[in-house]
Amino acid sequence: MSIAIQLSGALPADTEVVGIGVFSDHLSAGEIAKPLDAGFLSSQGFTAKPGESQVAPLPDGQLVVALGLGAREEAGSAVFRRAAAALARAAGRKERVATTLLDDVPDGVDPVEVARAMAEGVVLGAYRYTALKSDPEASTIARVDVVGSGDGLAEALDEGAVVADAVCLARDLVNQPGGELTPRAFADRASELAAAGRFTADVLGRDAIEAEKMGGLLGVNRGSDEEPRFVTLAWEPEDPRGTVALVGKGITFDSGGLSLKTAEGMIGMKCDMAGAAAVLATFSALDRLRPPVRVLGFLPLTDNMPGGDATRVGDVLRIRNGTTVEVLNTDAEGRLVLADGLAMATEAEPDAIVDLATLTGACMVALGPGIAGLMGNDEDLLGQVQAAADAVDEDVWPLPLPDDLRPKLDSEVADLKNIAGGRWGGALIAGIFLREFVDDTPWAHLDIAGPAEAQDEDAETRKGGTGFGVRTLLHLLADFEPPQAPAG
């Protein structure tokens, strides 16, 4: 259900649930807004930590939800996003919801950014993947009135809702089973979204992929009964100040191929197309947000299966740019399809390339399940990606691409191996491999293997696909400046 999020001068008379912010330091001092009661909240164990909520029924049948904001001096837009998400969760069985959270924005915090974050939080908190549920229990919230006034607030609420809808689209794609979201089905969805969203989608089938000499994608697809697809997306504004190419790994299910995963290792492998999902979802929002840059998308789509003619360990594949790769582990397949995608993106001569991929478990070992690894070849671009991620509260951490690891990818029979062997630096090795396919184009790589799928829940996120990366990409595109060549 689509939620109407609107700015209101006062609480509407038909409001069923009102969300009221509570700072932890104000609660301890007994200084909270009526009709909330500090004694009641304390008796329920409510401490007003960020993302916490407590429902308090009133005699007239209306419900009030106390929304934790933590300490006032630490409350930025991320705290208000979590509070709005907590409200959507607590009020999920009602239709008409309102909140006075804008009254609580501390001095020095931009209320426009808070409004945008609140709209995101409402939509993200209300999200449920219910397509396959017999009794879906979907959120029934139809309208959220945000009480407040000020320049830019209504527009910010609209923008936040658009961004969150895109995140939810990515979540839906990741949550859909791999037996349903085949490469063909994914490509069809891209075409549908393009028609509705005023961008273009060019879909290549097997014959066209062969003609384009995408040996990495074809090699990974060899063991599958499902045909591969390669989707090229484009959004063209007037007078763009640059071109950004987005590349998303689109392995719709990863069994590991002949280097077969364990049964436990296959759980969650429908998530291995989260990079492609994030890129497609980003395109779905471009015509409404209208960033001042031309945006291209490249989505190599296949599953990775152990069929009778699957790529064997030791086989050599020829990538789009002519590079030959000896495959020593068929479960290191994402870098093979990305190699074709990056080569295609490079040929388009963009100002920058950003790829997203659930690429390595090694990145999760290094950074944990909630942080993406950020690598690349251009400090200016890496700084822009980092700044965008920080601005929207998606956690990324920079990782190096040490040149002294590059010889570990040398092959005796081909130009490269797809793995280095050994236990160390797996995420870095994967990044170094990808770097071979971007020439000198400024490039950033986000390894989202951890944060693309949530094993636990919080106010904003349910178990399953998170849509990680969509907010970062949209913010990056809005502020993008072509990287400057190093002096000298």
What are its keywords?
single chain, alpha/beta, Aminopeptidase, nine-stranded mixed sheet, six-stranded mixed sheet, 15 helices
Question: What would you say this structure looks like, in words?
Answer:
The structure is a single chain. The chain is an alpha/beta fold and 488 residues long. Helix 10 packs across helix 15 (470-479). It is elongated and about 75 Å long. The protein starts with a strand and ends in a 9-residue tail after the last helix. The chain contains 15 helices and 20 strands. The chain folds into two domains: 4-147, Leucine Aminopeptidase, subunit E, domain 1, CATH 3.40.220.10; 167-479, Aminopeptidase, CATH 3.40.630.10. Helix content is 34%, strand content 20%. The strands form four sheets. Strands 7, 8, 9, 10, 11, 14, 15, 16 and 18 form a nine-stranded mixed sheet that branches. The protein has a six-stranded mixed sheet with strand order 1-6-5-2-4-3. The protein has a three-stranded mixed sheet with strand order 12-13-17.
- Approximate helicity band: 25-40%
Largest sheet descriptor: 9 strands, mixed
Number of strands: 20
Provide the domain count.
2
What's the CATH H-level homologous superfamily of the largest domain?
Zn peptidases
Low-confidence stretches: none
Q: Bin the strand percentage.
A: 15-25%
What's the CATH first level of the largest domain? Alpha Beta
CATH topology of the largest domain: Aminopeptidase
Classify the oligomer: single chain
Q: What is the overall number of helices?
A: 15
